[in-house]
């Protein structure tokens, strides 16, 4: 491979590549899938190859010293609302002015310390565990150590040092550290193999010998090590798109960063979330091997590791509230805290003990030990501050400082120093050359396009249909005056469609932005190769999509081909350039905004400005001086002018009899004037454009320059913009103190005395539950039988993909049945066979994904669930008391007034449980209730489940990796193996005794006394030597459990237990009131949507107002501008429809969950969404209408009708957007569809082409178009009884007819003589003498203006009915 492919590298690396490949020429022949493959030999050989290629495989020591991170605190503690957004802006302006007046004022906002003097080290060959509860700063610590960019609001200090063979600061941290985040951010449509192959291409540079074989092998070996080899050809998926399971997706996240084994340090942030204990242990063992064999190091943060996992670590970093409580050897941690008078209970694991050491609700248990007499003396120093102080005074802290000093003082071994060419490579941000980055990105992008080809083809088909529709509307435009006007209109319309269509892609751009940010931070690629690759594929895709739109329109409308197709090709090229420029502009906007709503609003205003000032609505001579500069920097202006010259050049026009002016039959036709002649003359008279063929090339080059400019801007902002954060909010002291730290058992839910529940112990049974897909070819559940009774908690466990969640869904009757799927089996509650509706009302289901209305507070979410799901016989006070009990039991009181979107992962999980528990269900299903939360929170959840079960509720839950203590809190276990086969069902026994005896009696290896039974049993069933499913089928335990289930399934006289058919649910009006209340507060606290649309309409109104500022006079120009201004009021409606779609689709997941739970009827949700939109729409429209109307100078006395009509039109576009969001699967699809529908409405509204000029087969469209009714009403309202005059230069002239001596004598109009040298040579007239002329021209009075408003109301009602159907019948999320 020639070295000049990468000028920055010397020829040495390529020479080394050839030399080493010749030495190890048999390496590509290694088959890593062979039965006799030896991983140790392979790793050894790989290290030899890398060493021969001068790749430094050096051990790395990392130290961090006195790390501090502070964030600003919101002193007001207020929740952001629509009003606070404006008041906050005013406050910021006034504060800024005050600081200017008093510059010596500090003005610094208050801040809170997230990390406080945290120090530590990570030595080669060591694993360091970072433990801390949610909010302890563990993620921030790992990000700082990994060298990741911090959010702008975070102030940092302290030192992070990497002791490598490179000179300090020379090599980028990303080359020897791999940061694995806790969120699974991927391109969901790609397969696991494609995801990992791309990572391998980026991480393993092309100059490595045998790099293709290494990449191929690394993909397989990494996937095999993480247990996802069998899923390599399955798509990754997401929460919406079904792919691999959640646990497998987490392993893909780990594999993506781990695939480059040359990294010296792994940094893994809360990586075990969603993984079962067996998988967690195996991954940790793999990391342990990495440290032992390769002398690598790893820093891992975990929420609740098991004892076996904990034993694999060398050092422990214990944090609480950002303070360091301990750092040192893991084996010394317990002894250190024993010296402080804190002792671990007998059956609590050491990791759980350590992670809850500062928890005020649990630490009292730790005071009971040999030094229990010290309780009173030590209580005062057991809070976090005192524990941190004690550690800084301990010998462990002194050892920590000594170790850091010795590591930093250790001299560098010059014999290990990399060669000069390797040092140059290491100094670069990305190891791959730009050429290879582009190649890898191009391959991935092609795979992505192929994976979404149906969606792409749908967009092409949509454009083709739109093109055919437009072409049929403008069918074979004649070479008449009307045809001349329509040609310019259709070209402007195409540019308008292209501009608006780019806005629909903004939500997709934000999804791409998340993946880009993660991979760029990992040094996969640079920003500009990524954007260049995107631009290349954008060109190819836009060329196809634009051709599907333009070619049908061009040919069907009979536009100018110029004798061949070169004019069509030029038109296509210009429009593709416009599309690419708009795409680059949206990428730039997405790069500088944090949320899609704000980005859409800003991009919408920018697009409207560019459309308004492109020269169609007003020529450059008519545009005011203060706006003309926008015209000259508007890319759409150059595109439109290029298209006009391309179209009108060489055309000759003639007029029909009706088009000759003045339109008076008393004037012979030969004396009337044709207003058009040639295309060049039409361009000069109408648009002020002078034709020159050189302009075509000039305009193309200008557009190319704009494309390059926006590309460079997007590349710069994408590369430079740092992630943004949010101010940390204070938790009120009154709320924080409401939890009683010394009485943890006193916060149980008070449901024992509930009349709806009573002492009755419910019985839930499921018999022979089976579930299959692919027409039975793939069985996910295989005749699973079990039961749950009140007083006992049933735990569902198994390896990833064993069918735990599937069983939960099937038992809860929430599994989506599609084509090829089948479910069989029987579910009973208290002996009664249930249907789906009954079970929904009588059960609670806590989903693994925490789906809530993000803008509600914790208290509001719980109260909403209680009001609508508890029987109406329970009073409001009783419901509120139950909410208080749930808040206390789940320890959510400090967060009760915090918005859901501001909660941490642990608090959201507790809230998910709370909204179900507060309804006092007879059966409670929970999917991973302890996943992703701290050990103390997990124990809180387990204790809560125990109390709930003791009230008679049947509790069934899945758990991935419970700690030993949490596992002991469960009563029964249903253990599944892949394929949905039962391995065990029965009692767990004290400390797993019953479970152990069952497996050990059948040959399982005996469990160590200090081991976790949950982890042990998963290891046991992973042994393929024994068919544990068959062992269960043949066991007497299976027979006994079958009999017990059959007995529990029998009915009794009280089997109904007072169930009524309506389940005593709140009435429909009550449901609607509660839904309206919640929806209103959601919108009130969603300033990024509602404030954005108000500002959007305000900016557009100001822009149109400035463009037509007081120009709508009673002159001829004023008459024509009046109609143009009235038409412009429909343009913002496109944005209103698109803006409402994202918040509507984002709320669908919560809606689906609540409907499945029987919380309310779909009609209540439908009514609430419609009513709550109304006031916000009215306010936004009022802002637009008032500013627009009086700035442009329309008739003040006619404002009332205009106001009412505008309110109805904008309400129509909003309800249309909601309708499309309810009947389409994604927001992007809905926005594209909204753009197409509203564009068609615009086309046939009468502005671009009059009704009498449409083909006969399209004239019906006027009668079903709300925009047509709206505009006809506005024209009637504004033009009725109005007269216009002509100023100099506005008169029309025609030759005086033969036999006429005085122009004034011509009947049917007002004509004046034009006298030259005493002779009447011509007659002059005003083309538009009255408003009725314009009304007649556009046939605006065919329907009364008030009936036009009725037609818009009918359209609104139709949209609302379709929306109701969509909410009631369509579901776009499957289970």
Automatic annotation (TrEMBL):
It comes from the Eukaryota. Residues 730-740 have a biased composition (Polar residues). Residues 100-346, 764-1004 form the ABC transporter domain. GO terms for molecular function: ABC-type transporter activity; ATP binding; ATP hydrolysis activity. Residues 722-742, 1036-1066 are annotated as: Disordered. GO terms for cellular component: membrane. Keywords: ATP-binding, Membrane, Nucleotide-binding, Transmembrane, Transmembrane helix, Transport. It is a multi-pass membrane protein. The chain crosses the membrane at residues 456-477, 489-508, 543-561, 568-593, 599-617, 697-716, 1092-1109, 1121-1141, 1174-1192, 1199-1221, 1233-1250, 1346-1368. InterPro entries: AAA+_ATPase, ABC2_TM, ABC_transporter-like_ATP-bd, P-loop_NTPase, Sigma_54_int_dom_ATP-bd_1. It is found in: Membrane. It holds the Pfam family ABC2_membrane. SUPFAM superfamilies: P-loop containing nucleoside triphosphate hydrolases. PANTHER family: ATP-BINDING CASSETTE TRANSPORTER. This is Probable ATP-dependent transporter ycf16. It comes from Gracilariopsis chorda.
């Amino acid at each position: 491979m020639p070295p000049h492919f990468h000028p920055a590298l010397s020829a040495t690396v390529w020479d080394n590549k050839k030399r080493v490949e010749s030495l190890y020429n048999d390496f590509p022949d290694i088959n890593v899938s062979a039965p006799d493959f030896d991983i140790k030999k392979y790793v050894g050989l790989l290290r030899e190859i890398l060493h021969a290629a001068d790749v430094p495989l050096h051990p790395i020591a990392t130290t961090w010293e006195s790390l501090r991170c502070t964030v600003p605190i919101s002193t007001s503690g207020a929740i952001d609302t629509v009003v606070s957004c404006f008041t906050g802006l005013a406050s910021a302006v006034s504060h800024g002015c005050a600081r200017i007046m008093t510059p010596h004022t500090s003005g610094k906002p208050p801040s809170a310390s997230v990390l406080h003097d945290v120090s530590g080290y990570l030595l080669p060959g060591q694993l360091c565990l970072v433990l801390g509860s949610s909010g302890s700063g563990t993620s921030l610590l790992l990000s700082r150590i990994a060298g990741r960019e911090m959010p702008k609001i975070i102030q940092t200090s302290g030192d992070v040092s990497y002791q490598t063979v490179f000179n300090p600061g020379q090599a980028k941290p990303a080359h020897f550290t791999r940061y694995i985040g806790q969120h699974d951010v991927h391109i969901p449509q790609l397969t696991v193999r494609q995801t990992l192959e791309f990572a391998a291409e980026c991480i393993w540079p092309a100059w490595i010998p045998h790099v293709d074989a290494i990449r191929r092998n690394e993909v397989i070996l990494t996937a095999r090590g993480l247990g996802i080899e069998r899923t390599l050809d399955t798509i990754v998926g997401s929460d919406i798109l079904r792919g691999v399971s959640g646990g497998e997706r987490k392993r893909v996240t780990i594999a993506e960063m781990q695939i480059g084994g040359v990294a010296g340090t792994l940094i893994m942030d809360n990586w075990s979330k969603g993984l079962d204990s067996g998988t967690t242990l195996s991954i940790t063992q793999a990391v342990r091997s990495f440290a032992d064999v390769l002398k690598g190091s790893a820093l891992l943060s975990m929420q609740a590791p098991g004892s076996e996992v904990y034993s694999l670590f060398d050092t422990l970093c214990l944090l609480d509230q950002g303070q360091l409580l301990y750092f040192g050897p893991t084996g010394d941690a317990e002894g250190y805290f024993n010296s402080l008078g804190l002792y671990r209970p007998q059956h609590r694991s050491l990791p759980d003990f350590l992670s809850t050491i500062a928890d005020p609700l649990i630490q009292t248990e730790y005071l009971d030990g040999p030094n229990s007499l010290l309780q009173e003396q030590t209580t005062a120093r057991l809070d976090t501050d005192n524990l941190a102080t004690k550690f800084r005074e301990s010998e462990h802290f002194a050892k920590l400082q000594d170790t850091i000093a010795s590591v930093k003082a250790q001299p560098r071994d010059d014999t290990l120093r990399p060669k000069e060419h390797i040092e140059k490579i290491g100094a670069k941000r990305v190891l791959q050359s730009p050429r290879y980055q582009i190649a890898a990105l191009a391959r991935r992008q092609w795979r992505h396009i192929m994976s979404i080809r149906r969606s792409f083809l749908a967009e092409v088909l949509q454009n083709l249909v739109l093109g055919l529709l437009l072409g049929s509307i403008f069918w074979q435009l004649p070479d008449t005056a009307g045809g001349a006007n329509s040609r310019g209109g259709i070209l402007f319309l195409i540019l308008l469609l292209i501009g608006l269509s780019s806005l629909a892609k903004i939500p997709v751009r934000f999804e791409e932005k998340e993946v880009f940010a993660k991979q760029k931070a990992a040094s996969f690629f640079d920003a500009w190769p990524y954007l260049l690759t995107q631009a290349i594929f954008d060109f190819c895709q836009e060329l196809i999509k634009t051709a599907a739109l333009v070619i049908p329109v061009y040919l069907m409308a009979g536009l100018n081909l110029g004798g061949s197709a070169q004019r069509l090709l030029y038109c296509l090229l210009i429009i593709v350039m416009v599309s690419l420029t708009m795409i680059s502009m949206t990428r730039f906007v997405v790069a500088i905004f944090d949320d899609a709503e704000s980005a859409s609003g800003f991009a919408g205003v920018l697009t409207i400005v560019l459309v308004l000032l492109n020269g169609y609505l007003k020529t450059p001579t008519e545009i005011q001086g203060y706006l003309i500069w926008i015209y000259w920097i508007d890319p759409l202006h150059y595109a439109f002018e290029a298209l006009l010259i391309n179209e009108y050049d060489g055309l000759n026009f003639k007029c029909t009899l009706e088009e000759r002016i003045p339109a008076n039959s008393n004037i012979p036709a030969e004396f009337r004037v044709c207003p058009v002649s040639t295309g060049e003359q039409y361009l000069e008279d109408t648009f002020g454009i002078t034709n020159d063929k050189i302009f075509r090339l000039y305009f193309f080059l200008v557009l190319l320059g704009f494309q390059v400019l926006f590309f460079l801007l997007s590349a710069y902002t994408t590369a430079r913009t740092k992630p943004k954060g949010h101010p940390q909010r204070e938790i009120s002291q009154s709320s924080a103190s409401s939890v009683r730290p010394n009485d943890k058992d006193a916060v149980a839910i008070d449901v024992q005395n509930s009349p709806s529940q009573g002492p009755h112990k419910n019985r839930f049974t499921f018999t022979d539950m089976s579930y299959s897909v692919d027409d039975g070819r793939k069985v996910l559940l295989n005749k699973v039988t079990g039961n749950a009774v009140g007083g006992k908690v049933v735990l569902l466990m198994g390896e990833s993909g064993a069918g735990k969640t599937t069983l939960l869904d099937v038992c809860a009757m929430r599994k989506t049945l599609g084509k090829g799927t089948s479910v069989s089996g029987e579910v009973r509650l208290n002996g009664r066979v249930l249907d789906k509706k009954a079970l929904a009302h009588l059960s609670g289901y806590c989903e693994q994904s925490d789906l809530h209305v993000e803008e509600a507070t914790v208290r509001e979410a719980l109260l909403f669930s209680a009001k609508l799901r508890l029987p109406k016989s329970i009073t409001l006070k009783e419901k509120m008391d139950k909410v208080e009990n749930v808040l206390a039991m789940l320890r959510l009181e400090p967060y009760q007034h915090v918005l859901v979107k501001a909660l941490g992962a642990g608090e959201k999980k507790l809230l998910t449980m709370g909204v179900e528990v507060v309804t006092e269900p007879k059966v409670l299903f929970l999917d991973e209730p302890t996943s992703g939360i701290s050990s103390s929170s997990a124990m809180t959840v387990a204790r809560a489940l125990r109390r709930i079960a003791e009230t008679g509720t049947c509790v069934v839950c899945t758990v991935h990796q419970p700690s030993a203590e949490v596992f002991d809190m469960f009563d029964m276990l249903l253990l599944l193996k892949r394929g949905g086969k039962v391995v065990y069902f029965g009692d767990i026994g004290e400390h797993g005794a019953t479970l152990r005896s069952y497996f050990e009696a059948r040959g399982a290896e005996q469990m160590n006394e200090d081991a976790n039974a949950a982890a042990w049993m998963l290891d046991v069933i992973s042994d393929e030597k024994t068919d544990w499913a068959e062992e269960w089928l043949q066991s007497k335990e299976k027979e006994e459990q079958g009999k017990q289930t059959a007995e529990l399934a029998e009915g009794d006289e009280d089997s109904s237990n007072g169930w009524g058919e309506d389940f005593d649910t709140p009435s429909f009006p009550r449901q609607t009131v509660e839904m309206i209340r919640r929806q209103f507060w959601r919108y009130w606290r969603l300033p990024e949507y509602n404030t954005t649309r108000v500002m959007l309409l305000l900016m557009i109104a100001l822009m149109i107002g400035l463009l037509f500022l007081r120009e709508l006079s009673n002159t001829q120009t004023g008459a024509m501008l009046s109609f143009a201004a009235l038409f412009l009021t429909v343009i913002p409606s496109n944005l209103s429809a698109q803006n409402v779609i994202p918040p509507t689709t984002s709320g669908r997941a919560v809606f689906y969950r609540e409907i499945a739970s029987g919380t309310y009827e779909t009609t209540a949700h439908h009514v609430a969404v419609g009513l709550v939109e109304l006031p916000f729409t009215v306010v936004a429209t009022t802002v637009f209408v008032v500013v627009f109307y009086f700035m442009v100078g329309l008739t003040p006395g006619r404002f009332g009708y205009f106001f009412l009509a505008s309110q109805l039109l904008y309400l129509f576009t909003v309800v249309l957007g909601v309708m499309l969001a309810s009947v389409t699967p994604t927001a992007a699809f809905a926005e594209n569809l909204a753009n197409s529908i509203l564009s068609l409405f615009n086309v046939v509204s009468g502005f671009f082409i009059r009704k009498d000029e449409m083909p006969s087969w399209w004239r019906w469209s006027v009668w079903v178009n709300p925009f047509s009714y709206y505009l006809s009403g506005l024209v009637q309202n504004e033009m009725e009884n109005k007269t216009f005059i002509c100023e100099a230069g506005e008169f029309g002239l025609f030759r005086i007819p033969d036999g006429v001596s005085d122009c004034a004598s011509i009947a049917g109009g007002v004509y004046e003589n034009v006298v030259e040298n005493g002779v009447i040579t011509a007659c002059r007239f005003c083309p538009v003498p009255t408003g009725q002329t314009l009304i007649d021209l556009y046939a605006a009075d065919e329907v009364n203006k008030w009936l036009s408003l009725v037609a818009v109301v009918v359209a609104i009602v139709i949209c609302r009915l379709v929306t109701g159907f969509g909410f009631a019948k369509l579901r776009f999320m499957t289970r």
